[in-house]
Amino acid sequence: MDYLILREIGMIARCFQSISDTEFREVNLEKGQYLFLVRICENPGINQETLSNMLKVDRTRTAKAVKKLVEKDYIIKKHSEKDKRAFELYPAKKAVEIYSFLRKEENFSADTALSGFSDEEKELVCSLLKRMRTNIEKDWMAVKRGNKRSYLTE
Q1: How far apart are the C-alpha atoms of 66 and 75, rounded to whole Å?
Q2: How far, CA to CA in Å, does 89 sit from each of 28, 31, 65, 67, 97?
Q3: What does the radius of gyration of the chain's CA atoms come to, in whole angstroms?
Q4: Helix, strand or coil for residue 129?
């Protein structure tokens, strides 16, 4: 039964990904780039490492997304004042202009997914999903560092 929960979560995630890839095509965003763009708009000056951790993706995927978003004039990449080797990411004017559209789409998707849920049910779902994420983050961090998951080493 437990694996069925993860399959449901996976199906939900793929549905949203497919919808967003289609909806955001009109603003020239593709393959989940909106996730990076929204987080940069909400966290101006964020660095790529923090962004990767926030989205739970590897640094290579973040670097590719950032590169494309810079090329499309959605974000500005600046050297950090504190560490000249590091970069900070800022939304460009073009990103600021479409941010409300991105959030509106995100809200519409959330409203659709949670249609018919009471406030208490929404809080419960959120709480349970946060617990699941916390549980899996340990393995995610280990794998990210090149280690094997614990069940493989026993």
Answers
A1: 8
A2: 19, 19, 12, 11, 17
A3: 18
A4: helix
Q: Locate tokens 């998707």: which residue?
A: 109
37, HSE (Cβ side, Cα atoms, 13 Å): 32
Query: How far is residue 147 from each of residues 41, 56, 73, 137, measured CA to CA in Å?
Result: 33, 16, 37, 13
Nearest partner of 38 among 108, 99, 124, 107, judged by Cα: 99
Q: What is the model's pTM? A: 0.86
Distance CA 45, CA 91 (A): 9
Length of the chain: 154
What span, in angstroms and rounded, lies between the C-alpha atoms of 134 and 129?
9
Q: State both tokens at 145.
A: 């560092």
Mean pLDDT for each 10-residue chunk of the chain (154 residues)? Answer: 90 92 90 93 95 93 95 94 88 96 94 96 96 90 78 56
Closest Cα partner for 91 from 73, 68, 64?
73
Residue type for position 116: G
List, in order, residues 6 or more apart from 146 with CB less than 8 Å away.
none
